[in-house]
Amino acid sequence: MKLTVTKEFTFDCAHMLSNHDGLCSNLHGHTYKLEVTASAQLIKEGSSKGMVVDFGDLKSIVKETIVDKFDHSFLFWEEGSEAEKEIARVVENFGMRIVKFKERPTAENMAIYIINTLNENLENGIKIVRVRLYETPTSYAEVEIDV
Ligand SMILES: Nc1nc2c(c(=O)[nH]1)N=C([C@H](O)[C@H](O)COP(=O)(O)OP(=O)(O)OP(=O)(O)O)CN2
Ligand SMILES: [Zn+2]
């Protein structure tokens, strides 16, 4: 039997897809919807007895490592176009939020980063087994790992 719990989050980001053959090469933003699914053995004792992970604890870790980092920032690719890097410099020089990303900030790459980062920061046998990231109400990327 595999038990999972899922919690939803939202955050807002500006990004651009350098060299995209379409509108997404322009600076634009999304309200991302993030679904995070955790799996573990049921906790046997204490205040979280009978839970895979307390929704409150899951919320804290996702907020600290992902949402608070990305929210209201310009997420830019460190190897993107000169325009992308120059926009990031200007945004930073004006004291506004940027996040430097090693990969092109597609929904797929963001989902991979999110599941890896969360799993590096979790203890007690809890694993994030699925991340689904909506860029728009009709478009999402999903990454799953086997436990
Ligand atoms: N596989 C991917 N395709 C695209 C990505 C992505 O991350 N992965 N990103 C974009 C753009 O950043 C942007 O999200 C546009 O997405 P799209 O769904 O095409 O947006 P629309 O506003 O046209 O959505 P509708 O709901 O269809 O109006 C592009 N592609
Ligand atoms: Zn986009």
Automatic annotation (TrEMBL):
Catalysis: reaction(s): 7,8-dihydroneopterin 3'-triphosphate + H2O = 6-carboxy-5,6,7,8-tetrahydropterin + triphosphate + acetaldehyde + 2 H(+)
GO MF annotation, one: 6-carboxytetrahydropterin synthase activity
User: Which residues are in coiled coils?
Assistant: none
The cofactor named in the record is: Zn(2+)
Q: What is its EC number?
A: 4.-.-.-
Q: Which UniProt keywords apply?
A: Lyase, Metal-binding, Queuosine biosynthesis, Zinc
Q: Which Pfam families match?
A: PTPS
Note on cofactor: Binds 1 zinc ion per subunit.
Gene Ontology biological process: tRNA queuosine(34) biosynthetic process
- Write out the pathway annotation from the protein's UniProt entry: Purine metabolism; 7-cyano-7-deazaguanine biosynthesis
The keyword Metal-binding is annotated on this UniProt entry: yes
Quote the record's binding site residues for Zn(2+). Answer: H15, H28, H30
InterPro entries, A to Z: 6-PTP_synth/QueD, 6-PTP_synth/QueD_sf
* Residues of the active site: C24, H72, E135
Enzyme class, top EC level, equals: lyase
Against PANTHER family, the record matches this protein to: 6-PYRUVOYL TETRAHYDROBIOPTERIN SYNTHASE, PYRUVOYL TETRAHYDROBIOPTERIN SYNTHASE
- State the similarity comment: Belongs to the PTPS family. QueD subfamily.
The record, for NCBIfam families, names:
queuosine_QueD (TIGR03367)
Q: What is this protein called?
A: 6-carboxy-5,6,7,8-tetrahydropterin synthase
Gene (UniProt): queD_2
